[in-house]
Each structure stands twice: as structure tokens, then as C-alpha cells.
């Protein structure tokens, strides 16, 4: 199921992980289009990024800049589950910026009803909405900080396998099919760096019958010897429970204690 | 409150500093005043069951009136009295999940006779006497003892909150009927006596009857988007699961099981060992704890972890005392931990000790329907931006879900791959990529209560929703797709307040809500090292080590007069975002925050480099922030600073080295001491909450000195 050009791609992305800005490049931003700059009734954007729409402060008329897509989604700057507003460059798909979601009660004092048209959402960001800041969706500094997660220089964008002792900080990029085969089949996975012990993969540990310790059957079967953990209450960890239950382990941990 | 998120800059908010790990004392002091002045809600406390509470216009009940057997010679001593103990005949009934219905015993307020709680609407909650020849007291009466274990003056000394202020809080809290609440959670529960915090919170809410009431402790909630009974798909039921549960397997964090019930204990007794003790503490009532599990891994006790799957988390840094060389060295050892797979966007402290790293997607590239937020509904986070990770030929991207799906399929696990997810009619659907799962959850949200309209065509084009990846549309039916898009276009769905707020001032979807005034589970729990018990009603429990001996019995308060707390950072996200230049620009590092008077006594000035040292010699060194608002006798640290990895380290990929950025490592993390009673002969054990098994982040002992 892996793309034919995986190996080449893997290599290129590994270079990305070495310090070059990744292609998401929020910090770079795109220049405003000529059309937007020329037609805008407002001062030119300070950030060097195009505005998504303009609103006539007197009539409330909205004209949308079709070069910019505004999508509404959710923020994980923390776990309050605020909504957010993601601005994307329509041509490149790059993230231009992030803000609040006026439909979400966590980000707006008077949130828009679900049925309110998107035009109303654009208008809510302007002085023409009549509600001041009450309906305007906002996110906090941490919500803005999440932009850096996409574009950070150290972002990993390819599978890595350790190429030195564990903890030594040496890695090599590998393809997805290789990673999947190694972790499921097990074996002498680090023979090439001089570690010739056998490692049990998922298939070997996936034994829901044989006890971990016949003297202490209450510990459970061998399949109980895997741990899954996470700390994020971001709506993704339900699959961890599904994996744990279907694999046969009770060791599915969440953020509860840490 | 030592860890609170409430800021004193909010109008009407008074910031009252409190010593860490003394929340139980403050709550007990307030309850002492409420009992003294009888300002609790006597109506609410007399309801022995939900039905009675609801009939009287409330939303919840307590076990305040349930009788407790206090006769030391009775076989059920310390237990709540059951109908059989009182010689009361009751029908045998089963609950929906097959458990026997419990019939507790109360004194009926009308007859003054003992009765089963299930057949009584109003009970006497303050009672002491004999029933069927057995000495009994109500839980409420027993709580009087524990909240009066200290005087108000002593509570003021313990908490650092003046008596007058405690009196003011108690008066204020009881002056608004049910329209009051207490909030405490998260960090304030992560102390050595952390359980006292949620316990006190719940007791205080219950004493005024504020649960499920408008203006009081009102639930938020969300519609069923995943479970059985959801509108379109059942995303949790999987046929053919292996059935490994806590009934036949032990959780690595040593929770939910009494030490003396383990096979290890029984085997050691059978071999002639008298009163055997475990290597690490067992927690009868603790359900799960990643911190304890981490310590189990490094000690390979009670069993070895063979494969660790770490997803976007930092259990090492989040476990106080664990981020030390001895622990990290063991995690580096394949003989201790044979295989470690990490999925993340950065090489943090966990990924640094991984064998394999799987790249994950960020919040702009992932799906999720988290609960939370302030109103009824659900936010939908979705793949609004093309992920930066490699795309596989089936259109999915490398991420945590892809790892789980592909490993599950390789192992032939049920509930993954073809015929994995049932719809409401029972037809089966495939689960081959993240969209297959999450967009079905979005369909459930779209059809919850009243289905939303189809998306407007023009709005679809405006947001580019007509050009979404092919996996999206394939995940749901033709009929569902335009409604799913409509929910995506708003980033979720929220219902107006009136939807959940009944005209009678209650939650419209009332569920049975019981608060334990007397906690029977705690009453029956014994400590695995000393056999000691903790009181079953609200009170203050000073910081203790693993055998429930007081920390101050082991180390001198004169020499180590400071305690500590940690709070969530405003400019990081728990352990994350220290690699964000935006966040670092706002605040480059954190501080050891110290009270002004304490600093003056120690000759410490704002900006000095200071060291907080534990009795075991652990050193936390950082810049002092001398400030108001910090309680005297404790220092505080904003959590999530002091990384050793996360981009602070050099990373070598195929021989090309990306130099680490020391700015990411800036700041200080609390170097908490280990539990000295278990950490002997090579064992490494952390300070723990003896109920919940949470880590003892707050409430340790320190001295502070200038570096």
C-alpha cells in the first residue's frame, strides 16, 4: 500500500527534519494579492498576509477574497476545546493564519447559531456586526502558538528508526512498509548496529491465552504486556481504547494522572 | 486553588493564596462552619435516592443518611449497613448491567424506624444509635468527627488562609441557595493527598444541593457521537474482542486491586513468608495512572512491558521525580523495555528513547471530536489542511491512526479493516483510514436530535469542501455526506442553552447523581505497607509517604520548611509548545515563584538564581520571581519547562546533525524527591496519592537557598 516514490520522498522529508523550514512555512506567509491590496478599503495588512474578506462598515456588505479559504475547526492549544478559524491559501493549501470560530461558544460570547450563513461569520469579524467583540470568535496566545507546530523546524515528517544506542539521538529514515513489517514481525531488528538480541513484535505479543506468568495468572495474558499512552484530550484517543480492547491489554493510559 | 486557572484580574475575583496540598483542610474547615451554623441544605441531605430528590425539585442526592456499622466486633464493621444486617426483607433485584441492587439502611424521617433506602423518601441524616442490635451512625454524623479534627485556627495555620477569610467563604457559599459551586480539578488533584481535593469539591456541592441545577454545578455534555445508540453508526461495539479486562488481568499501574488479593501476595504467603510487602505500592481504589505505569516499566514490576506505544505525550516529564538519569537510563535499556514506538511531531523526551518514530499530524491535519467546552454540543476538528506527513496510496497519511489501523490489520484484530463498524441498522462498514472513523462520528453529530440541513452549494465552494480527499466522501453514505459537510463547515455543532436548561432550573437530561458523604471503598481500603486506613469522610490528610507515615516524621520541618506546587503555564501547553518561537517570545522561561516575606527572610531578590532542595538532595535551580499572590511557606513552578529534548538536543539523521536549540530547554522543572521508603535496593518509586494513584506533584518538602 506504499507509494512507489516513498523512498525518495522519505529522504527529502528527512532533510526537512534537519532544520530547513518545513513547507507549511507559516512564518513566511504569502504576499497579498494585487487585487486585494488595490481594492481594500482598509490599511494594507500588517502581517504581509492577504485578508480573507472585506466588510463595508456602513452597509455590512461582505466581499470575499476567493484566494483565501476560511475553514472552521477545533483548537488543541490546550484542552478547553475551543473552535478555531483556519485561513488557507487556496492555490497552495498553506496555512496563512488562525483565529477564533464565531460559531463556537468557547470562543464567542454570543456565538452564531449553526444556521447562520458563512457570510454572517465573515461579518462578525468586522465593525459592522453591531456586536463589537461579543460575537467575534477569538483564540488565545496558545491557540496562536499552535501555528508553530505545523511549521517548526524540528518537525518529524518521515518514519525514523534509531541508528545508534537507544537515547543516543541517531536516526535514519525508513519507509512505512519497512517500519510496519519490523514492528509487527519482530526479530533481530537492530543487528546492523550490533544488537543481536531478538525482539518480539506485535504478532508475537498478541497472545491472549498464554499467561504472562503461570504462577500469577491474575497478571493476565501476554497481550497485556503492551502499553498505549497519551495525554491528549483532543478527541483522538478513543481509538486507543479500541486498539487496547481488541488487542487484549488493559494498559491503555490517558492524561488522568500526569 | 494553589494551582487554579482563575486569575485575580477577573472582576469580582479574590485571589486567596493557599498552601499546596491543603485543599482538604480548607474544605473541611468550611464544612465545619456549615455544620456549626446548620447552613447546609437539610432537605437535600435527607433524600436517600434520586427519585425523592427529583420529586422535590432537586437534581441529586447523597448517602449522608445511610447508616454505617460502627460496632468493631461486627463482621461488616466500617461498611454501610445493608438490609440484611438490619433484618429488613427486600426483593432481590438486578441492575441493568446484572449487578445485585444494593439496599442500604436509613432511618425513615416519618416513622423513625429503620428502612431500606430504596423505600424511603426522607431520611434522618444526623443519627447515632442501634439498629437490630448493631451500633450505627450516619455518614453525616461521622463527617462531623473528621471535619472537627482541627480547630478553625489550626486549619488557618495549615492552609495559610486566615480564619476570617474561611468564615467569609463559608458564609458566602451558603448564601445563594443552589446557585453556587466549587471548582477544582486537574493540577490541584495531583498531590500526595490529591484525592482530598475532588472529595471536598463534591461534598461541598452536595451539601447545598447544587448538582445539575442552573447556577450551580451544571453539566455540559455532548450528544452520543460514538457509542451504541448513536444516530447513524456504533463506533464502540466490536464483536469478537478477546475479553481481557481488569477482572482477569492486572493494570501495570497497580490499581483497582488490593495488594492482599494479588496472586503474588498469596504465593508468597503460601511459601511461608509472613506479611509480605510489594516492591511498589498497590492502589485498591486507583483506576489508572500513567505515572505509576512508567515506574512499573522501569522496575519491571509487577510484570515487564514488552511494547510501549507512546503517542504525543511526555510521561517522563509529567511524572514528578521521574525525569532523572536513573529512570531515563532504564528506559534506554532494551533488556528493560524491548520495543518502544513513538508517534509525535517532535523528538521529545519520550521519542528520544524510542526505537521507531512515526510522524504524526498536527491539529490542522487531524480529526477529533473532543468533549468539553462550556456548552452542550461538540467541536469538530478535521483535516482542514493537507498533512505534511507522507501520503499512502489509499489516500491516508502517516499518523497515529494509520499506525493503529495497520498494526491491527497485520495482527488480524476484530473491529479494523473490512466489516468493522456497524451502522444503526446493523450493516457493516470498513475501517481502513482515519476518515472512516471520524466522519462517521460527524454523521452521528449531524443527525443527533434534529438532523442538520444539507450544506449550501455556494458555501461548499467557498470553503473548498468540493475538493476534499476521496476518503472523506467514501466514509459516509450519499445521504449523510451533505449534512456531514454542513457540520464540518461550522467546525462542529453547538446547541443553544435552552436545549439543556429546563424551565424548572434543572438540567433537562437529569441522570442519577449520588455524592458519597461516607466513602465505603476508602473505609475498607488498607495500606499495603502498614495496614493503616484513611478516614472515610472528608478531612485533612497531611502529606504522607507510601506507608501512610507523615513526611514530617521522617524529615525536619525546620530544615525543610517549604512545600511546593506546580501550575499550568500560560505560555506553554502542559509539556508542549516550548519549541514555539511565538510562545518563547512572550515568555522565555519560567521561575521559582516565592512569597515576598519568605524571600526577604532568605535574602533573595527578584531575579536571583535560587535552588530548592529536597531532603534527598534533589535540586531544582532557577530564577526567583518574588511576588505577591504566592502563599508563604511554599514555592510554585509553572509546569512544562526545563526540557532536555523536544528540540533542545542535537538530532543526527543519516549523519547530518541538526544542532539543538538551548532556548527550548530554558526554565526549571521541579525535581521532586522519590518516595524514600520504597526507593531502596535499586527500586525507583515516586511520591503518590494513596487513593487515586496520581503522582505527588504538589506537597513535598524543600529548603530554598541562593545558588
Automatic annotation (TrEMBL), chain A:
One of the record's GO molecular function terms: 4 iron, 4 sulfur cluster binding
Keyword annotations: 4Fe-4S, Iron, Iron-sulfur, Metal-binding, Molybdenum, Oxidoreductase, Signal
Listed Gene3D superfamilies: 3.40.50.740, ADC-like domains (2.20.25.90)
PROSITE patterns hit by this protein: TAT
InterPro entries according to UniProt: Prok_Mopterin_Oxidored, TAT_signal
PANTHER family: TETRATHIONATE REDUCTASE SUBUNIT A, TRIMETHYLAMINE-N-OXIDE REDUCTASE
Protein name as it appears in the record: Tat pathway signal protein
Species: Gordonibacter pamelaeae
From TrEMBL, chain B:
Residues passing through the membrane, by range: none
Keyword hit for Iron-sulfur: yes
GO molecular function, one term: molybdopterin cofactor binding
Domain Molybdopterin dinucleotide-binding: 571-646
Alphabetical UniProt keywords: 4Fe-4S, Iron, Iron-sulfur, Metal-binding, Molybdenum, Oxidoreductase, Signal
Matching InterPro entries: Asp_de-COase-like_dom_sf, MoPterin_dinucl-bd_dom, Prok_Mopterin_Oxidored
PANTHER family named among the record's database cross-references: TETRATHIONATE REDUCTASE SUBUNIT A, TRIMETHYLAMINE-N-OXIDE REDUCTASE
Protein name: Molybdopterin dinucleotide-binding domain-containing protein
Organism of this sequence: Gordonibacter pamelaeae
Highest classification ranks of the organism: Bacteria, Bacillati, Actinomycetota, Coriobacteriia, Eggerthellales
Amino acid at each position: 500500500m506504499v507509494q512507489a516514490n516513498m523512498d525518495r520522498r522519505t529522504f527529502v522529508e528527512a532533510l526537512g527534519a534537519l532544520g530547513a523550514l518545513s513547507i507549511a512555512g507559516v512564518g513566511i506567509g504569502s504576499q497579498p494579492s494585487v487585487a486585494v491590496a488595490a481594492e481594500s478599503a482598509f490599511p494594507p495588512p500588517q502581517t504581509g498576509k492577504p485578508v480573507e474578506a472585506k466588510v463595508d462598515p456602513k452597509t455590512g456588505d461582505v466581499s470575499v477574497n476567493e484566494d483565501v479559504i476560511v475553514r472552521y475547526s477545533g483548537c488543541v492549544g490546550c484542552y478547553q476545546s475551543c473552535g478555531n478559524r483556519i485561513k488557507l491559501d487556496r492555490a497552495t493549501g498553506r496555512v496563512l493564519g488562525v483565529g477564533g470560530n464565531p460559531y463556537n461558544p468557547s470562543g464567542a460570547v454570543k456565538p452564531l447559531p449553526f444556521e447562520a450563513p458563512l457570510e454572517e461569520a465573515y461579518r462578525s469579524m468586522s465593525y459592522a456586526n453591531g456586536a463589537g467583540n461579543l460575537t467575534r470568535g477569538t483564540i488565545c496566545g496558545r491557540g496562536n502558538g499552535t501555528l508553530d507546530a505545523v511549521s517548526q523546524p524540528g518537525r518529524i515528517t518521515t518514519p525514523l528508526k534509531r541508528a545508534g544506542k537507544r537515547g543516543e539521538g541517531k536516526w535514519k529514515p525508513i519507509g512505512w512498509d519497512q517500519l510496519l513489517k519490523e514492528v509487527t514481525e519482530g526479530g533481530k531488528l537492530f543487528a546492523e548496529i550490533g544488537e543481536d538480541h531478538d525482539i518480539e513484535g506485535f504478532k508475537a505479543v498478541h497472545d491472549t491465552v498464554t499467561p504472562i506468568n503461570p504462577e500469577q495468572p491474575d497478571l493476565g495474558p501476554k497481550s497485556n504486556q503492551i502499553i498505549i499512552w497519551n495525554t491528549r484530550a483532543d478527541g483522538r484517543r478513543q481509538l486507543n481504547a479500541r486498539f487496547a480492547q481488541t488487542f487484549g491489554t488493559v494498559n491503555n493510559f490517558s492524561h488522568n494522572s500526569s | 486553588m494553589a494551582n487554579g486557572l482563575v486569575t485575580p484580574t477577573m472582576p469580582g475575583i479574590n485571589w486567596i493564596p493557599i498552601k499546596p496540598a491543603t485543599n482538604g483542610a480548607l474544605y473541611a474547615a468550611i464544612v465545619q462552619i456549615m455544620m456549626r451554623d446548620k447552613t447546609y441544605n437539610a432537605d437535600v441531605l435527607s433524600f436517600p435516592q434520586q427519585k425523592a430528590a427529583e420529586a422535590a425539585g432537586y437534581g441529586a442526592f447523597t448517602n449522608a443518611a445511610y447508616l454505617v456499622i460502627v460496632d468493631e466486633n461486627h463482621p461488616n464493621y466500617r461498611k454501610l449497613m445493608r438490609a440484611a444486617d438490619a433484618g429488613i426483607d427486600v426483593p432481590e433485584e438486578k441492575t441493568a448491567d446484572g449487578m445485585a441492587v444494593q439496599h442500604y439502611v436509613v432511618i425513615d424521617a416519618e416513622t423513625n424506624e429503620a428502612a431500606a433506602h430504596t423505600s424511603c423518601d426522607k431520611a434522618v441524616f444526623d443519627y447515632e444509635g442501634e439498629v437490630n442490635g448493631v451500633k450505627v451512625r450516619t455518614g453525616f454524623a461521622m463527617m462531623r468527627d473528621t471535619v472537627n479534627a482541627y480547630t478553625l485556627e489550626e486549619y488557618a495555620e495549615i492552609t495559610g488562609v486566615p480564619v476570617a477569610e474561611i468564615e467569609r467563604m463559608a458564609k458566602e457559599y451558603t448564601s445563594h441557595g443552589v446557585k453556587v459551586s466549587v471548582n477544582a480539578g486537574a493540577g490541584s488533584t495531583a498531590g500526595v493527598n490529591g484525592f482530598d481535593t475532588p472529595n471536598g469539591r463534591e461534598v461541598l456541592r452536595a451539601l447545598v444541593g447544587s448538582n445539575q441545577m442552573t447556577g450551580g454545578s451544571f453539566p455540559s455534555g455532548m450528544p452520543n457521537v460514538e457509542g451504541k445508540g448513536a444516530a447513524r453508526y456504533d463506533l464502540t461495539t466490536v464483536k469478537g474482542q478477546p475479553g481481557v479486562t481488569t477482572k482477569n488481568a492486572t493494570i501495570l499501574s497497580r490499581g483497582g486491586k488490593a495488594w492482599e488479593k494479588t496472586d503474588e501476595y498469596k504465593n508468597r504467603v503460601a511459601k511461608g513468608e509472613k506479611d509480605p510487602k510489594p516492591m511498589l505500592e498497590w492502589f485498591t481504589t486507583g483506576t489508572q495512572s500513567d505515572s505509576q505505569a512508567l515506574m512499573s516499566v522501569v522496575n519491571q514490576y509487577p510484570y515487564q512491558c514488552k511494547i510501549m506505544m507512546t503517542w504525543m505525550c511526555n510521561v517522563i516529564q509529567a511524572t514528578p521525580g521521574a525525569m532523572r538519569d536513573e529512570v531515563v537510563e532504564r528506559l534506554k535499556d532494551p533488556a528493560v523495555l524491548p520495543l518502544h514506538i513513538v508517534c509525535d511531531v517532535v523528538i521529545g523526551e519520550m521519542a528520544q528513547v524510542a526505537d521507531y518514530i512515526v510522524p504524526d499530524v498536527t491539529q490542522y491535519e487531524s480529526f477529533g471530536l473532543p468533549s468539553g467546552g462550556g456548552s452542550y454540543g461538540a467541536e469538530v476538528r478535521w483535516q482542514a489542511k493537507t498533512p505534511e506527513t507522507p501520503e499512502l496510496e489509499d489516500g491516508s497519511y502517516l499518523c497515529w491512526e494509520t499506525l493503529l489501523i495497520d498494526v491491527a490489520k497485520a495482527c488480524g484484530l476484530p473491529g479494523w479493516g473490512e466489516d468493522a463498524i456497524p451502522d444503526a441498522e446493523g450493516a457493516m462498514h470498513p475501517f481502513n483510514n482515519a476518515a472512516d472513523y471520524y466522519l462517521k462520528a460527524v454523521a452521528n453529530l449531524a443527525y443527533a436530535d434534529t438532523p442538520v440541513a444539507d450544506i449550501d452549494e455556494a458555501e461548499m465552494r467557498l470553503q473548498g469542501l468540493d475538493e476534499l480527499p476521496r476518503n472523506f466522501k467514501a466514509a459516509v453514505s450519499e445521504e449523510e455526506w451533505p449534512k456531514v459537510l454542513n457540520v464540518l463547515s461550522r467546525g462542529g455543532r453547538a446547541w443553544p442553552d435552552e436545549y439543556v436548561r429546563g424551565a424548572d432550573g434543572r438540567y433537562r437530561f437529569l441522570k442519577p447523581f449520588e455524592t458519597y458523604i461516607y466513602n465505603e471503598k476508602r473505609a475498607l481500603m488498607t495500606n499495603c505497607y502498614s495496614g493503616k486506613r484513611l478516614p472515610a469522610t472528608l478531612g485533612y490528610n497531611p502529606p504522607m509517604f507510601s506507608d501512610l507515615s507523615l513526611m514530617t516524621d521522617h524529615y525536619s520541618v525546620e530544615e525543610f520548611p517549604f512545600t511546593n506546587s506546580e501550575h499550568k503555564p500560560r505560555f506553554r501547553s502542559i509539556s508542549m509548545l516550548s519549541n514555539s518561537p511565538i510562545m518563547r517570545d512572550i515568555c522565555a522561561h519560567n521561575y521559582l515563584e516565592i512569597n515576598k516575606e519568605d524571600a526577604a527572610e532568605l535574602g533573595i531578590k527578584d531575579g536571583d538564581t535560587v535552588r530548592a532542595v529536597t531532603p534527598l538532595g534533589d535540586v531544582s535551580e532557577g530564577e526567583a520571581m518574588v511576588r505577591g499572590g504566592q502563599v508563604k511557606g511554599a514555592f510554585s513552578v509553572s509546569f512544562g519547562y526545563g526540557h532536555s529534548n523536544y528540540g533542545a538536543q542535537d538530532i543526527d539523521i543519516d549523519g547530518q546533525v541538526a544542532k539543538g536549540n538551548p532556548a527550548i530547554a530554558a526554565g526549571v522543572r521541579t525535581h521532586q524527591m522519590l518516595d524514600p521508603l520504597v526507593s531502596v535496593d535499586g527500586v525507583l518509586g515516586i511520591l503518590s496519592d494513596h487513593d487515586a494513584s496520581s503522582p505527588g506533584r504538589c506537597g513535598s518538602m524543600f529548603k530554598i537557598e541562593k545558588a
